[in-house]
């Protein structure tokens, strides 16, 4: 009887843990999607709350911090018009979540509309009950690039 109770307890705790992870992964997926919308809409106030003060942004033309990224978005020197997400993988490691997106980014850069395939890596950390973006890295890839799940 004791072994049946222990087995049931283990199964219950395992399913609760799995449900929590799945819920966190869904939350991070939605947060990533919302971030792309905020970038397209130039909602720098919302992004300023999401981006950690020490966050870094890696682009094809350089790497910089939060203030510069917000300035770029607000000024429109890079206007992230639309990010079509073709594939997405989320992994949660305690209070850290990593998102890999395979996207086609349509942006207005240096006076031209461009469409580029990227794999974008996003790193989030849960701080005081809120998820903060620590890193956003664009990696140029071929259109045949795939994310393994």
From TrEMBL:
Highest taxon, organism lineage: Bacteria
Keywords: Signal
Signal peptide stretch: 1-19
Protein name per the record: Nuclear transport factor 2 family protein
The keyword Signal is annotated on this UniProt entry: yes
Pfam families assigned to the protein according to its UniProt record, in alphabetical order: DUF4440
Species of provenance: Neolewinella litorea
Residue ranges of domain DUF4440 in the record: 28-133
């Amino acid at each position: 009887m004791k072994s049946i109770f222990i087995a049931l307890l283990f199964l219950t705790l395992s399913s609760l843990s799995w449900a929590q992870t799945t819920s966190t992964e869904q939350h991070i997926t939605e947060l990533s999607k919302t971030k792309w919308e905020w970038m397209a809409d130039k909602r720098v106030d919302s992004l300023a709350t999401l981006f950690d003060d020490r966050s870094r942004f890696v682009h094809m033309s350089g790497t910089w911090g939060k203030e510069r990224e917000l300035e770029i978005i607000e000024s429109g020197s890079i206007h992230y018009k639309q990010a079509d997400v073709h594939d997405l993988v989320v992994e949660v490691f305690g209070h850290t979540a990593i998102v890999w997106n395979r996207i086609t980014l349509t942006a207005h850069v240096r006076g031209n509309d461009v469409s580029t395939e990227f794999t974008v890596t996003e790193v989030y950390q849960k701080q005081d009950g809120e998820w903060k973006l620590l890193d956003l890295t664009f990696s140029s890839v071929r259109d045949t690039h795939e994310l393994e799940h």
